[in-house]
């Protein structure tokens, strides 16, 4: 089913099969290739032309690669437009490694199957069932709904409700953590109202902090609360994953660069991750219909030079855009990260 | 000329024949498609479905109304192939089984958008299948009371029904005061609404069937066959005799022209195990014989299964 020979040594699950971790190059860790609001695929005024979508995404991926990009992580999970066969074709056509994700959330984005099942009473799914659903997407392959399984998911992703984690969000977080512990892939969480609280939920399942990336830490509320540093101290990865977005509840690139410099200076350079977080193609969210022509190369063309002006060395940058995400994505048993810097 | 939208195009009302007014080719909660435990090959799906439809046709069944809403595994080009190959007319639904089966894109939508979507599926078609919806499905979410989203869907359905002439079919008839208030505010005559599942085992006691009928609504005894006598009955099952007596009592009070009856069976369930031994053909194999045994004449049976559905399903202009 995939074109790669069995890989030796540490590997990462891509849509074309396991790839040696050393081959990933520059990695953008929290992206969305095709993003579809659940249900929009049925809407009378939403057109999903896969050939057109392929063309648009291939151009953006080639642009990313042309500027030195190696790997894109599609962290939309299993129920927000993920189209595994499209991702495979894109990776083959552009040479960009694509890592796809399992998982879902927050509660509002789930289907009724998980929230009001045909039982009396209709009790929402518990963590163990989510763990099983997500885990099988790693061990048996990602689903093409009602058709087949394809390659293994490279990470488990979930999100908490912005106003605060709901009971079902907590089941999703615990289930995601459990799936990660049993399969060796990492967990990506996007926090709701409290980054540290939400991180503690997945750690409580026995997942080492070094197997977790916390997204959205360049939100203004996260910045104001000091959560990027708190998350790094706890040993998890800090994703500043809206690079290029200013306003709309996010800090500016200047503030973002200052934050990276601060994390590096305080000894947390091995915990920082960067990403753009702008969907390549978005369906069902009118405000995001117009996506930029070159979303993902901005990281390398504009933001990395900005980091250099803040005093980051080439080694620092290499660590942030290559080594850190590679270590995060590498599949396998991982020892707990021992960092607890005062 | 009175007509009805089927998945293969409009047909004259005269062609409907005996109608099973609330059935499912296959139903699954949204998201169930992600869980491989329910997956079936296309061979299995046709294998479970075609013999039931052929049997329905051979018994004299004319039309199968599929009450599966958007996001519940509704699969119109599959229905088109089934209809074409078996000769059974299949009417598809627009709308939702309940707010809790509407995915986020629709859950966030306004009443105007929902009404435009339903209208499009009735007048232009569903997706790129060319098949047009012949009925609008609405319903009450789990929990027994209409949610805000349920109410938005009911209101949009009323507007689309008025704009297109296609009728509305409800999943559950509990909390009917709220439903009727919405239909009345929107100006939809209540004989364009079938208040379904008044006979279901969980809700029959809480459903004001005679009150709804007094307001002019049509009443659906449409979970016939979900019986506690089954080897593995679902939680909404009810003793066979109790349901039949409820139905006979109801039509005995002069309401024969307001009732419709169906089995709400799945030919091949999509996201749940289904109920072993329960099919649309309960109508022929059990229900009609029971009604005859209870003394109903052929004219009354024709009223329930042919004339009432024809008047309900005909596009009103
Ligand atoms: Zn039904």
UniProtKB/TrEMBL annotation, chain A:
Keywords for this protein: Hydrolase, Metal-binding
UniProt keyword annotation of Transcription present: no
Coiled-coil ranges (or none): none
Protein's UniProt keywords contain Hydrolase: yes
Signal peptide: none
Matching PANTHER family: PHOSPHOTRIESTERASE-RELATED, PHOSPHOTRIESTERASE-RELATED PROTEIN
Pfam families: PTE
Family label: Belongs to the metallo-dependent hydrolases superfamily. Phosphotriesterase family.
InterPro entries: Metal_Hydrolase (IPR032466), Phosphotriesterase (IPR001559)
Descriptive protein name: Phosphotriesterase
UniProtKB/TrEMBL annotation, chain B:
Modified residues (N6-carboxylysine): 137
Source organism superkingdom: Bacteria
Hydrolase keyword on record: yes
Keywords: Hydrolase, Metal-binding
Family: Belongs to the metallo-dependent hydrolases superfamily. Phosphotriesterase family.
Protein name: Phosphotriesterase
Originating organism: Intrasporangium calvum
UniProt lineage: Bacteria, Bacillati, Actinomycetota, Actinomycetes, Micrococcales
């Amino acid at each position: 089913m995939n074109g790669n020979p069995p890989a030796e040594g540490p590997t990462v699950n891509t849509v074309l099969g396991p790839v040696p971790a050393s081959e990933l190059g520059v990695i953008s860790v929290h992206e969305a290739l095709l993003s579809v609001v659940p249900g929009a695929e049925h809407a009378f005024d939403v057109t999903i032309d896969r050939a057109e979508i392929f063309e648009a995404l291939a151009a953006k991926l080639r642009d990313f690669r042309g500027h030195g990009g190696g790997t894109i992580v599609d962290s939309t999970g299993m129920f927000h437009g993920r189209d595994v066969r499209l991702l495979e074709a894109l990776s083959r056509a552009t040479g960009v490694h694509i890592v796809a994700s399992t998982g879902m959330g927050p509660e509002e984005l789930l289907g009724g199957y998980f929230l009001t099942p045909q039982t009396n009473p209709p009790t929402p799914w518990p963590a163990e069932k989510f763990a099983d659903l997500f885990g099988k997407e790693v061990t048996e392959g990602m689903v093409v709904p009602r058709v087949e399984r394809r390659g293994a998911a490279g990470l488990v992703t979930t999100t908490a409700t912005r106003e605060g984690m709901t009971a079902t969000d907590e089941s999703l977080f615990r289930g995601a953590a459990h799936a990660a512990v049993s399969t060796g892939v990492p967990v990506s969480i996007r926090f709701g109202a409290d980054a540290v609280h939400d991180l503690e939920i997945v750690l409580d399942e026995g997942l080492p902090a070094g197997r977790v990336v916390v997204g959205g830490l360049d939100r203004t509320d996260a910045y104001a609360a000091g959560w990027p540093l708190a998350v790094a101290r706890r040993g998890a990865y800090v994703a500043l994953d809206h690079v290029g977005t200013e306003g709309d509840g996010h800090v500016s690139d200047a503030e973002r660069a200052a934050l990276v410099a601060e994390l590096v200076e305080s000894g947390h350079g091995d915990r920082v991750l960067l990403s753009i977080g702008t969907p390549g193609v978005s369906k069902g969210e009118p405000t995001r219909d117009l996506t930029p022509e070159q979303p993902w190369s901005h990281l390398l063309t504009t933001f990395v030079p900005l980091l250099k002006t803040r005093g980051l060395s080439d080694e620092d940058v290499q660590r942030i855009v290559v080594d850190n995400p590679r270590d995060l994505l590498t599949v396998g048993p991982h020892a707990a990260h021992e960092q607890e810097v005062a | 000329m009175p007509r009805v939208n089927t998945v293969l195009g409009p047909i004259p009302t005269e062609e409907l024949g005996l109608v099973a007014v609330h059935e499912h080719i296959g139903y699954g909660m949204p998201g169930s498609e992600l869980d491989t435990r329910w997956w079936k090959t296309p061979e299995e799906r046709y294998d479970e479905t075609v013999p039931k439809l052929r049997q329905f046709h051979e018994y004299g069944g004319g039309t199968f109304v599929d009450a599966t809403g958007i996001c519940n595994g509704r699969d119109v080009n599959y229905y088109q192939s089934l209809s074409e190959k078996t000769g059974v007319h299949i009417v598809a639904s627009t709308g939702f089984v309940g707010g809790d089966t509407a995915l986020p894109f629709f859950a966030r939508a306004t009443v105007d958008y929902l009404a435009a979507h339903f209208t499009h599926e009735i007048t232009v078609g569903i997706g790129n299948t060319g098949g047009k919806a012949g009925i609008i499905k609405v319903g009450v979410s789990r929990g027994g009371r209409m949610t805000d989203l349920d109410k938005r869907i009911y209101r949009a359905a009323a507007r689309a029904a008025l704009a297109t002439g296609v009728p509305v079919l409800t999943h559950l008839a509990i909390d009917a005061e709220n439903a009727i208030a919405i239909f009345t505010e929107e100006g939809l005559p209540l004989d364009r609404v079938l208040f379904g599942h008044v006979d279901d085992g969980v809700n029959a006691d809480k459903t004001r069937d005679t009150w709804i009928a007094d307001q002019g609504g049509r009443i659906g005894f449409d979970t016939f066959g979900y019986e506690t006598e089954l080897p593995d009955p679902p939680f909404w099952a009810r003793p066979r005799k109790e349901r039949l007596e409820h139905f006979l009592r109801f039509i005995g009070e002069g309401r024969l022209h307001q009732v419709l009856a169906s089995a709400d069976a799945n030919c091949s369930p999509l996201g749940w195990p289904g109920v072993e031994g329960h099919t649309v053909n309960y109508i022929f194999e059990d229900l009609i014989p029971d009604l005859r045994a209870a003394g109903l004449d052929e004219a009354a049976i024709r009223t329930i299964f042919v004339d009432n559905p024809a008047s309900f399903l005909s596009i009103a202009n």
